[in-house]
ANTAR domain-containing response regulator (Kiloniella antarctica), 204 residues
Amino acid sequence: MSVFRTPNFRGDKAVILHRRDDNIRRLERHLDRLGIESTVAWPDFNLENTPADMVFFDGDNGYDGLFPWQKGTPPIPLIALISSEAPGRLEWMLSQATSAHLIKPIQSSGVFSTLVIAYANFANLQHNHAQIKTLETRISKRPVVFRALLMIMECGHLEDEAAFAILRSAAMNDRKSIEDFATNLDRNKVNTLIKNFSVDKGMA
C-alpha cells in the first residue's frame, strides 16, 4: 500500500447527522476554517441528494438504518460524535465501520487531526476490502485453475509441476493472473501452449 499523505480538505463536503446545538455550531465553524462545506441533517440523509466526502454522526443516538448503505460498508469516512462510553453504544459505532471519533463537547482543537486519522483509517479499510475481494475471487476460481492443469497434464502427458510451469509462463506472457488466464482455456489452446512451451525450451 502506498504511503498515506495528509489530505487537503479544502473544497470537501461534510454531512453532520446530528441535531443542531452548540456542539454542532462549533464543529461547523471548525470545518469552515478548514474550507469544508457542511450540511446539518437529522435523521434523514440521502447521499445522492446531499453529496458528501465525510459524515459526522451522533454516536449517542445513532441507530441501525441511519445510513443509506449496508451496515458496516460506508463509501466515505464516518466520524462519530460521542459523549457516552456505554459499551452498547461503542459496539454499535464500531459495527458501522467508524473511521474516527470526536468527544463532545467539541473543543477548540482536535478536528483536523481527527479528520486526518479518519481518512487514513478509511483508506486502510478500503485497501483491506480490495485485498479480501481479490483473495475471494482467486479462491472461487481454483476449480478453473485445477481444470486447466488437468487439461495440460492430459494433453501433454505431463506431471503437475510441468503443467503448472506452462500455465504460469503463459499467464505471465499474457499479463494476466493465472486464474483469469485459465478461465478461457480449451483443449485447442492447451495444445498450442504445450507446443509453444516445448519450442521455447528446445524440446520440440
The chain has two domains: 13-133, 141-200. The longest strand covers residues 13-17.
